Amino acid sequence: MKSSIKLLRRRAQRLGGAGAHALLAGTMLFCFASCEEAAEDVFERRFALTQSPGLGVEDHIALLDHQDPNIRYLALANLLQMGALAQPDENGDEDRGDEFEVLTATLRALMADPAPKVRAIAAFAPINRTGEGAEERLLTSLDDAHSAVRVEAVVSLGSGERGARGELSRAGTERVVRLLEDQNVLVRLHALDALGAAGSSQRVGAMTGKIGRALVGSEIPERLKALEVLGRIDSDEAESILMERLDDDDERVVRVAAAGLISRRPKELEEWVLASLADGQFAEEFLMDTLTEIASDRSRPTAISMLDHPDQRVRSQCAAILEQIGDQASFDALVAVLHGMVPAVEAALALPPTDLASEGVE
Asked: Residue 176 in contact with residue 206, Cβ under 8 Å?
């Protein structure tokens, strides 16, 4: 271990001038792979391997303690692109020796680097989101004053790579839920992603009310993400919130809410779809798509009445619904329409020609 550290220090001294300049020159010639600040002090993650002739993995590792934070960041970004920051078993390389231990210790230390962009990419590095104590380290990064670090930490927490089970602890779940009140929208969105990755767990289900509050006064992307998470939570409270969102003014919200209810409240959803069709609310194609997933014989009259709809896609959906219902009345309606040889309906019926001929269709 000590010999490896000395070796890396000597290499860092050797690369302190020429190596660092080569790294920066290659970056300027190719694609500046730095963490650029965007709105609200959030860094846009753009990891691009720079053209740095003569610099290999070990050279980049040696630059991780360079005094210039841009050099540290670029070295870390390139190592990430090279796949050098994965755990040994991920690469099939089980014996990377003392140098990997040194790299792991260095990556842990970079999570507390003075530069926010270095802390951010360190929180995203696979080494730091796996292994013993990974969740604790990442939860500490959630308290970082810079939103870029919080974003990358919660992304790593949602990756499911923290251990054998890949589940957040109770404390971890509660901490991520608190991020739903973060001032930065990207932090809130990625917090919802992390919760959605474990949306069926009881721990997340216990937070349903807090997740539902993310729907109040938030922008559309955040509301959609919250509904996606609720759609994965198996609880009456989550289903009730989804049902309420069917009355939302924005059809995008309604679509996500409906998708989350298809397998859970099909009867109530079918009633809502039929009422919406009668009232002329929302796009008919969306409503009929939903109905094809949940239709019962209650939908037969509506489907039959729309078999002559001017939109061929809607006619095809009606045929699919009637085929799904599968009773004699539905079949008779389809056979009658086939006298007019409507191609979309004929395809949706999916019956061989011999069966149609037996019903007297010429």
From this structure: no
